[in-house]
Amino acid sequence: MAYLFLAPWFIGMVVITIGPILASLYLSFTEYSLLQPPEWLGLENYRRMLDDERLHTALRVTFTYVFVSVPMQLALALALAFFLDRGVRGLAIYRSIYYLPSLLGGSVAIAILWRQIFGTEGLINQLLGAVGIEGEGWVSHPDHALSTLIVLNVWTFGAPMVIFLAGLRQIPTMYYEAAEVDGAGGFTKFWRITIPLLTPIIFFNLVLQIIGSFQTFTQAFIVSGGTGGPADSTLFYTLYTYQRGFGSFEMGYASALAWVLLVIIAIFTAVNFLAAKRWVHYGD
Amino acid sequence: MSGGHRKAWLSMTGVLAMALLASACGGDDGGDDGDGAAAGSEEQIQLRFSWWGSDERRELTEAAIAAFEEQHPEIDVQGEYIEWSGYWDRLATQVAAGDAPDVITQEERFLREYASRGALLDLSEHEDVIDLSQLDPLVTSSGEVDGGLYGIPTGVNAYVVYANPALFAQAGVELPDDTTWTWDDYIRIAGEITAATGGEVFGTMDYGGNEAGFKILARQNDQELYDADGELAFDAETLAQWWDYSLRLRDSGGAPQATLSAEQQDTGSPEQTLLGTNRAAMAWYWSNTLAALSSASGNELMLLRPPGEHEGDRTGNYYKPAMHYSVSADTEHPEEAAMLVDFLLNDPAAVDAIRSDRGLPANLEQRERILGDLDEHQVAEAEYLAEIQEDIEDSPPAPPVGAGQVVDIIKRLNVEVLFDRLTPDEAAEHFISEVEAATG
């Protein structure tokens, strides 16, 4: 009987998750155009990645994005959580307002809005124009387009902020009181008490945000109109995978790309967990 | 014994699942026909017909479908439509999933991809149903792939320079004589317009991200983008020269700065382009967007021949099949699908509904018939297409498999050139190696 109740989940897992995962592993060793049956290629798809210049661009773009936006986002989230935690009137309202972008940030509507705001004749340039600065198109300039997407990601700091806020609430006030008795100032309290006790939360947010940022797709797809442009400056890894699969009918190669991304994320997560032993304190 | 029992049980669940699926699929068409549901009544044949494009096109096409259903009450046609860029993603997944529409609108750069991979029906086997006798011979052969007929052109189109006479007047610049103007004239005039209006109006929009324009320049130099074997058939210098024109336009102010051009390149709807908003006096588009662009700008736009037609060894202009109708190889109703294609191409009711929305009708007799009652835009378009006939020496060969990828490749390289990240020569080299890889 138990199996019967498990069945809906189990069938879903096998048919919708495990099945396609295994199929994509197989397809990654084939040439598969969607229209004809796959042809076995062996390791050719993986070898091809070494010479694929656009893939190298995509890796560069994605790593830049992850390494710049995740620390900035977490720092902002922590800073705001810290100030909100110090007792602000109407905390619930502020918390909701700051959390809102996290709910909206990955959506198509916001990406379209971003495109408008940072366009050649968008809001930002109108504001700059009002003070006499002639701005260029931000999303359409190869040197700036990625920055606008980083700003978009940093803006969605609400989700880690709420988690930080919960973490801050967990820190017993007696530690601070004891420190004050010993004459500790605000910075010392933050650095010696708050941060160490918050490390498990920081670690949790870090792992989640790194994994999430590697998989960024919607924003880049909408802001660049699916091209990863201008001039491949927002060619995220997932976007490139999508282009190969659905744009040029190379599902085999796209599957191989997806598997390499999985390995990259797995390595980052593993390194994170190993490094965590050195800096994360789980209390006693 | 128990094994047999289990088998029966399994097949029972299979049948159940199928029934569920079938009812789920049938569920979304409810509303328009209450009669088909009753058991035992005559079965209605369902056909799905997909196309890309605007809301205006949807209205026209649904009128044509209604006329078809009136003539063939036993057939129910469902339209599936989406804008251009989403169309190809969706079609690829549908075909892969074995769920392709029965009648598929194709474009020449994608037609071969689908045909050569066995996704389309060879329509030459249905010539008893589809009457090809009236179709414009200049474009009919464009649907032939490997000896079969996989797509039939809907109509003809040409790539033209749009000009906005009101903006020329505002700038005090005379409209060029398009039978003699050269590429240098084009660049000079564009610069004059920008200068005369103090940058309020750009002389022209950048056009370097669409290979159709380059195709014309290549042909003017006695070359082709692709030869009959699908190989690249132009000199790198010609392509470099083409992008060099873009840089001259950018630097002289005749075309906008790089960021604005890069944005415009990805602007899908005519209303939002610089031409549609009266901020550019010239732009390159396909001739069948005249109505959409004119109504967006509110001015009567003119169609000019491309520059340089009588500058080089020969002319470069050509008729392009605007779209193709094709039929899925997996269709359960090839006969009825062919009937729908024949109807759309040849039936007066369909031509009356669609008019020149899919290019000037490929059916010459019908084209002649509707010329009298076209609106002003359609007349201007028809006149232009008739005028350039004397210039057109031949049709370019159909593009090879993989040509659909060139859409994105050339846009990307164009931006690299406009931002000076690649020189025209470097971009030409990149183009050649990337397109060879895509079509190889």
From TrEMBL, chain B:
InterPro entries membership: Bact_solute-bd_prot1, SBP
Alphabetized Pfam families for the sequence: SBP_bac_1 (PF01547)
Keyword rRNA processing among record annotations: no
Keywords: Signal
Classification via Gene3D superfamilies: Periplasmic binding protein-like II
Keyword Signal: yes
Signal peptide span: 1-24
Superkingdom in the source lineage: Bacteria
Designated name of the protein: Extracellular solute-binding protein
